[in-house]
Amino acid sequence: MNSLTQKTLVVMKPDAMERGLVGEIISRLERVGLKIVAAKLVKVDEELAIAHYPVTDEWLEGVGNKSLGDYQKFGLDPVQSIGTSNPKEIGHQIHKFNMEYLMEAPVLALVFEGNHAVELVRKLVGSTLPLLAAPGTIRGDFSNESAIVANADKRSIKNLVHASGEVAEANREITLWFPEFKAD
Ligand code: GDP
Ligand code: MG
């Protein structure tokens, strides 16, 4: 195994399960040469949801500002839609939506391994906001969601998959979801 062989966590979120897109998504990841090295169906409890989405000021403000950017772009009033224009408060609401989303129905968690696995999976998954995700990516091809639409419905952006964003995040998440999985 060379030093660029990585492992990354992929979680098929409830909308991918519900819409029957799991096979399609797995094939897209497999066809670039990534291999499944662990997989299981998980009914996520609150403890796992909290641990999966740790709250940091940076994340809260980042995600809140992303939403505010969308409101501005479309000339909408964030207070009317989500009750506040404070990025951190918006972030807290989105965090709650994320936990509810993950716990809504059983999800399929997988560990993929391969060259540059973390970056490669993120590239194939596409941008967080499906509206901005490039055609050819999983989120760009199978979803039409935006922050505004999801916030107005008081739920997470349904973007089909979770994929670790960085190597350190992947290592933390694999240990969290697959404590039985021993790193080699
Ligand atoms: P990811 O790494 O691309 O999944 O994105 P993040 O880690 O930034 O956010 C985690 C999840 O929160 C996303 O996958 C979305 O489901 C959800 N999310 C992110 N931004 C927003 C938002 O502005 N509004 C809502 N409702 N959900 C969001
Ligand atoms: Mg993320």
Description:
The protein is of the alpha+beta class and 184 residues long. It has 10 helices and 4 strands; from the N terminus they run E-H-H-E-H-H-H-H-E-H-H-H-E-H. It has helices spanning 14-18, 22-30, 46-52, 57-73, 78-82, 87-103, 117-125, 138-142, 147-152, 167-177; strands at residues 5-12, 35-42, 107-115, 161-163. It starts with a strand and ends in a 7-residue tail after the last helix. 36% of the residues are buried. It has a 4-stranded antiparallel β-sheet with strand order 2-3-1-4. Guanosine-5'-diphosphate binds next to helix 4, helix 6 and helix 9.
**Name of the level-1 CATH class:** Alpha Beta
Pattern of helices and strands: EHHEHHHHEHHHEH
The number of E-state strands comes to 4
Unreliable spans are none
Q: Largest sheet, if any?
A: 4 strands, antiparallel
Helix content, binned percent: 40-55%
The pLDDT mean sits at 95
Please count the helical segments: 10
Instruction: Quote the CATH topology.
Output: Alpha-Beta Plaits
Secondary-structure content class: alpha+beta
The distinct bound ligands, ions and cofactors come out as: guanosine-5'-diphosphate, magnesium ion
Topology:
Blueprint lengths: L4 E8 L1 H5 L3 H9 L4 E8 L3 H7 L4 H17 L4 H5 L4 H17 L3 E9 L1 H9 L12 H5 L4 H6 L8 E3 L3 H11 L7
Antiparallel strand pairs: 1-3, 1-4, 2-3
Helix pairs in contact: 4-6
Descriptive keywords:
single chain; 184 residues; alpha+beta; Alpha-Beta Plaits; 4-stranded antiparallel β-sheet; 10 helices; 15% strand; globular; binds guanosine-5'-diphosphate; binds magnesium ion
